[in-house]
Amino acid sequence: MGLYSGFALLSHLVRTVVLVAVAAIAVVLLIDWLARTRRLNPFHPLARGVRRTVDPLLLPIERRIVRAGGLPSSAPIWALVGAVILGIILVTGIDWLLGSIIAASIAVASGPMGLFVLLVRVTFGVLQLALLIVVIVSWLPISPYSPWVRWAFALTEPILRPLRQMLPTFGALDLSPLVAYFLLSLLESAFLRL
């Protein structure tokens, strides 16, 4: 029980740090946005200090927004969205890692059958995570050949390609990841019943 309570404390600490960091980033980006949109005097010392430190960091985001036809003043909003998503990914990743360590320690203590169950769950968990990443990447202007997401496409394309050929098309809506996720869940439960 000591291992579990230590991991729970670490998870709570990570959540608190991420929440405080995102809140601080939100305040700074709000001041930057207020100065950019002239709701706050851009020559106010607070606005000048924030813009002097934040604007160089927002420049790559601002360039992408302008290239996409957006307004440069929305860069702080998109940066905040990115910070929130990054925080969610960090907290979820830490929780998954801690849960995996606990599951692995229980599986090792359970013997060969526990290791089999762990192997099946990890395998299907990675495949389902890859499906989720493929879906999220399809909504964003990220290349499937990017080194960050290429692994997810490499794992899921052998599953999705036959499903796309069998399923009817609904315009731009691709139901194959949803069907694949459902089939993977059924297959995982079938393996675990063995």
Concise overview:
By secondary structure, this protein is an all-alpha fold. The protein has helices at 2-36, 45-67, 75-110, 112-139, 150-166, 176-193. It has 2 domains: 1-110, no CATH class; 112-194, no CATH class.
Structure description:
The protein is an all-alpha fold and about 190 residues long. It folds into two domains: about 1-110, no CATH class; about 110-194, no CATH class. It has six helices and no strands. Helix 2 packs across helix 3 (about 75-110), helix 3 (about 75-110) packs antiparallel against helix 4 (about 110-140) and helix 4 crosses helix 5 (about 150-165). The radius of gyration is 22 Å and the shape is flat. The mean pLDDT is about 90.
Characteristics of this structure?
81% helix, mainly alpha, 194 residues, 2 domains
